[in-house]
Structures are given as structure tokens and as C-alpha cells.
Design brief:
Order of helices and strands: EEEEEEEE
InterPro entries: Glyco_hydro_beta-prop_sf (IPR023296)
Number of helices: 0
Shape: globular
Distance between the termini: 27 Å
Strand content: over 45%
Structural class: mainly beta
Number of domains: 1
Largest sheet: 4 strands, antiparallel
Number of strands: 8
Low-confidence stretches: none
Radius of gyration: 14 Å
Strand order of the largest sheet: 1-2-3-4
């Protein structure tokens, strides 16, 4: 489970809960303004994924994830959506961006942007 704050030009567009549900799929829900609830599911990926890290770059959203294999090492996978918002986003796999068959006993949780 992770939280993603969509902030562009110092303006918060929304805050999102990103989670693996029943180890079956990834769901993204927008949080309410008081952060105490969600407005419902707005997007999902129908794959066994965990370690979600969303970031926005060049007018697109990306999500770095890892396969769901318990405590075993596994490859990363990068997803992209061609939409400018997360609502009803269609995610496409860009496959493994690391050129390695394992994520070295770790998972993505956050992507730090540099100017």
C-alpha cells in the first residue's frame, strides 16, 4: 500500500491510495479532501503486483511495481498511462526497466524527481 500526492507546479491535484487488493490486482482510489476516506476506485491494473510507486513525468503517469512472490526476489515492472489524469487510466506495461531478473531483495516505494 502506498500514498501518492499528485502535485504539479506547486498545486496539489489530488492524493491517492494505491494498493494491492487480495493479491489479485492493483487499485487506485482518490482520497477525500480530509484524507479520511476515498471517493472510490478510479483505476486498476489486473495483475499480481506490489511495491507501487507512482510518478508523473512529461504529461504521463508511470507506476513502478514488483511481482508478487512473497519474500522471494523478483523482477520489477514499469507501467505507463497515456492520460493526463489517473481517473479511468489504462495502464500499459513497459516491462522490466532494470535489465535484471531480481530487484535485489527490495521494492519501489517512492520516486524522487530531480528538476
Amino acid at each position: 500500500m502506498n500514498i501518492y500526492q499528485d502535485k504539479r507546479n506547486d498545486i496539489v491535484q489530488g492524493v491517492y491510495l494505491v494498493r494491492s487488493c487480495n493479491n489479485q490486482y492493483v487499485r487506485i482510489s482518490k482520497l477525500t479532501d480530509d484524507y479520511l476516506n476515498t471517493t472510490g476506485i478510479i483505476s486498476q491494473i489486473n495483475e499480481l503486483r506490489e511495491g507501487h510507486a507512482i510518478f508523473y513525468r512529461n504529461n504521463r503517469y508511470y507506476m513502478m511495481t514488483s511481482h508478487l512472490t512473497g519474500w522471494s526476489s523478483n523482477p520489477a515492472e514499469l507501467f505507463i498511462t497515456n492520460q493526463n489524469n489517473l481517473k479511468n487510466a489504462k495502464w500499459y506495461s513497459l516491462v522490466n526497466p532494470t535489465n535484471s531478473s531480481i530487484t535485489f531483495n527490495s521494492q519501489s516505494t517512492f520516486v524522487l524527481s530531480f528538476p
